[in-house]
Amino acid sequence: MLHKSIVLLSSFMLLFLVWSCDDDSPTGPDLDEAPEPPTVEDVEMDFSVFENAENFNAGGFSVREKSTDDALDVMINEDMPAFEQAALYAQFAQVWFQTMGQLPQAFFQQEAWGEPDMCDDKWCWEWSMSAEGESMTMTVTAEDRNDVRHWELRYTTEGTDEDLDNALLIASQINLDGSGGSWQLYDFFEDEPVFNVDYVLEDGVTTMVDLGYEEEDARYLYERDGNMSTLTLWDVFESGESEVVWNNEDGYGYIQSPAYHGGEQVCWDEDFINTDDCRL
User: Fold this and answer.
1) How far does the signal peptide extend, from start to end residue (predicted)?
2) Is pLDDT of 52 > 60?
């Protein structure tokens, strides 16, 4: 199921961590104004309703110790109360973001890049190594355009089975005012991204996260408007469009999914119990 670029990404991550400990590349001038690498540490979807609820047994994030595959095995359960079913959907979204949505931070580690330089009016860091007839060069660039900082991570290899020529792996766009950003993971041999994340921050609150995996046409959208939050998932569980809506303050909400109760809207109340009196 995993795209080949994600598997290749893991290989490059391992090589990067090992080889960067023995970097013999020349370093450029120390430019004090070099930008900090992009991060998604401020992006935090609010699933506290599901994390903090105490008045139920099997639901909520009490299943967080399970792997994603194990969670999928119990993801669709007609007998599960609506709140517990919704909590599993929220958990999946959280795990997916934690495992895939934060990939840029694994590579954009400035301490391993060496000193910055200026290349064609862009900030740039270049790191390279060679061993046993193979060589690899990693180039990171940062450029400010129209109040957005654009980052790119590219690789060039020689002597490998499939050499790369300045191939784009990760691109990131960060609003300079802190209002949000996006990033994309690319297949080294394709022009379109295979994985992407967009997010919006308002006064430090995450109000939107849009995460998509193009290979599987899978996507989810998290939105928050005041006390109300909505999680919409498309084809994540091969079940079309599913929606979870909840009130962050009072805890009530509903779930609607083709794979749960025939696609009917099923609600829960402030005590996380199924109810026919839906407040939404």
Assistant:
1) 1-20
2) yes
